[in-house]
Specification:
By secondary structure, the chain is an all-alpha fold. The chain has helices at residues 10-31, 54-92, 100-115, 124-134, 144-191, 196-250; strands at residues 42-44, 47-49. The protein contains 6 helices and 2 strands. A two-stranded antiparallel ribbon has the order 1-2. 13% of the residues are buried.
Length: 266
């Protein structure tokens, strides 16, 4: 039996080979959305081809995104901890300004003025002794010289008390300017405080400044009250002394008593 062989020209063979190769490459791409089995890469004949897997690629992207999110969270946590440490350091920072020395100097000056009180000091025992000695009610047996000396002593006490009160007033007035400057400094330090400790220390120093002002006011009231008390005590003692002298003047004497008189030495 004789076979008839039809010769295919070379151009037609090339077209047919190309078409077959094209169909072979296009078939996996057309069936890729339908296939459920994971694709894989294979190598053969010295030539390799990598098959793209969308599911694996998406999972890799999701894993990378989660990892990046975890890293960002860790960075944010470290930043928060660093800021917390910075805030704690600010809260523990001490106020660079202290008013203690200035306030102590003001109180010492006022106390020195009170300690320099003339004649009668601000002590209970000394006050009792002075009133018992100089402001007690006189009697008829006292001499005129003694009455005059006691009156002069009481007047001296009153004048000294008035002068002491005026000196304390002058000292308190001089402290006002220093207190004003210190208050302005403390308010500025309080407003510029960087932490809770600095703000608290500034507030405490402002309270100390107010205490020092109250101390000056107390000293002023004490000195003024002392001067007024001495003045009233002198007035009361003078009234009692006047009553004694008037009673002594009105008390009848022994009258004229006759006696021997010598007109000449011989």
């Amino acid at each position: 039996m004789t076979r008839n062989i039809i010769a295919i020209p070379p151009p037609i063979r090339r077209i047919a080979g190309t078409t077959a190769l094209t169909l072979a490459l296009a078939a996996p791409l057309a069936l890729a959305p339908v296939l459920t089995t994971p694709a894989h890469a294979f190598f053969g004949g010295g030539f390799g081809r990598i098959v793209y897997d969308p599911t694996n690629h998406a999972e890799n992207l999701l894993t990378a995104a989660r990892t990046l999110e975890q890293i960002n969270n860790q960075i944010a946590s470290l930043q928060n901890e660093a800021q917390m440490l910075i805030n704690q350091a600010r809260d523990l920072a001490s106020l660079p300004h202290s008013s203690l020395q200035q306030l102590q100097q003001n109180v010492s000056r006022t106390q020195q003025l009170l300690d320099e009180a003339q004649n009668i000091a601000f002590e209970v025992q000394e006050v009792d002794q002075a009133f018992e000695r100089e402001y007690a009610a006189p009697d008829l047996s006292m001499s005129e010289q003694q009455l005059l000396a006691d009156a002069r002593t009481r007047w001296s006490n009153t004048m000294g008390g008035l002068q002491d009160a005026m000196r304390v007033q002058a000292g308190v007035t001089n402290n006002i300017e220093a207190q004003r400057a210190e208050m302005a400094t403390l308010v500025e330090q309080s407003q510029g405080a960087t932490g809770a400790l600095q703000a608290s220390q500034a507030g405490n120093q402002l309270l100390a400044l107010q205490s020092q002002q109250l101390s000056d006011l107390t000293a002023l009231l004490a000195a003024t009250g002392r001067a007024e008390a001495l003045s009233e005590a002198e007035r009361a003692a003078a009234a009692e002394q006047g009553r004694i002298q008037r009673e002594r003047f009105l008390t009848p004497g022994t009258g004229y008593q006759p006696g021997n008189a010598r007109m000449f030495n011989n």
